[in-house]
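Per reviewer request, we include the raw input and output of the structure prediction for the construct analysed in the revised manuscript.
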Amino acid sequence: MRRETGKPPWQILGTIFALKFDGRKDKTMKKSLWLLLLGLVLIAGCVVYVPYKGEEGSPPPRERERTYESDYRDYPAEMDVSYFYDYLSPYGIWVSYPTYGYVWVPRHMGLGWRPYTNGRWVWTDDGWTWVSYYEWGWVPFHYGRWGWDRRIGWFWVPGTIWGPAWVTWRWSNLYIGWAPLPPDVEFVMGVGINRLPYDLPGNYWIFIEGRYFQYDYLDRYVLPFERNTTIINYTVNKANLSVRNRRVIDDGVDIDQVRRVTRTEVSRYALEDARRPQETRISGNAVRVYRPTVKKDEAARPKSFWQKGEAEEKLPEIRTGDLEKRVSPAETELRLKQEQEKEMRLLQQSQEKENAELRRKIEDQKKLASDEAEKQKIDKEYAVKAKELQKQHEEEKSKIAERHQEEKQVVKKKLKKKEEN
C-alpha cells in the first residue's frame, strides 16, 4: 500500500479526534467515524516513504554521497598534484585519457606485469599496507587508482589522499587475493568501501596460495591469471576500507584468517614518515614511507604527455625497446622460459591443493553420515564435483599453454629480426 498525496495520516487522525458529535445525530454516524479511524490507523502502518523530488525529478544529494576527498578540500597540503606529474615522468609516460584526464603508464615492466605484485604486505597502524619495491612505489600504490585498458595496459589515475593500499580483497582456506580498485569506484566519506558496485574483471585479481601471504617478493608466487575464474568461485570478497580519525584504514583479510593459512603470527608495524621521496622501507618494527599531504590543482598538467591514440600506437614499440635495452633477445628467451616454467609449477601445485581440499571436505561429511546409504550419496556427489573441477583444470591448462605458445612466437620473431640486422 502506498501513499503519495493528501494530508499526512496524523493530521487526519487529529481532525477526527477534534470532531464533536451532536447527541441528536444518528448513532450510525458515530460508528462510521470510529470505523474510519480504525482504517486510517491500519493505513498508516503501510505507508511507504516517497522521497522529495526537485524540479528535475532527482532526489536531493545526501551527505553520505560526498566523496572522501571532498572532506579534505581545505586541509593544509605540502604540495599539489603537479608534483606527481614531475616525479613520475622519468618512470613512465603521461597520457591524456578521456574521462580520467592525465593518467600515467609505467615503463620497464616485465611480461604480464600487474600493480601490487612487486612487494609485500605488512600489518600496520592503518591496516594492511603495501610495501612496494619500486623507487617510485610510494606514489601510485598509495594515492589514486589503477585502471586497465586493452590497448595501453595498466594506467594510474592520480589521487590526493594517502591510503595503505587502494585494493579490494578475496580469500578462502586456500587462497588470498587482492585487486586494484578501479578509478570509478568511489570511497565515500563516513562509509568507506565494504562492497563493490560491480564485479571486477578477472584480470584485475592477483591470487597467491594463502601460505605465502607474509612472504617477500610476492610476484614470485602470483598464480597465472588463467586460474582466476576458478579461484574467484572459491573465495569471498570484501573491500574493508574505512576512515578512522581522518585516516584511511585497510582492514582487508581477517588477521585470524592470515594466522590460519600461513601458520605464523602476524607482526604489527608502526608507520613512520620518511622525510623525502624514497622506496618504502621496513626497519625493525616500523615501516618508513613518504606520504605528504597533497591537494588538487585542476589547472596542473604534465610537461609532456601523449594523446590516447598516440599512446596506443607507440607504447608497444616503446615497451619492446625498453626490454631490448636491458636484456639481449637470447636472455629474454631464457627469462621467458623460466617464467613459464614457474607459472606451470604454481598452477599444478594449486590445482592439486584444490583436489585435496575437495577430498578432505567429502571425508569430513562422510564421518558425519548416519548410515551407509548416506555415505554412498556423498561419494556420488564427490564424483560429480571432482569431474567438474577436473574439467575446469584442463581448461586452465589449455589456456595457459596457448598463451605460452604465443609468447614464445613473439620472442622468436624478435630473435630472428635481430639476427637479420
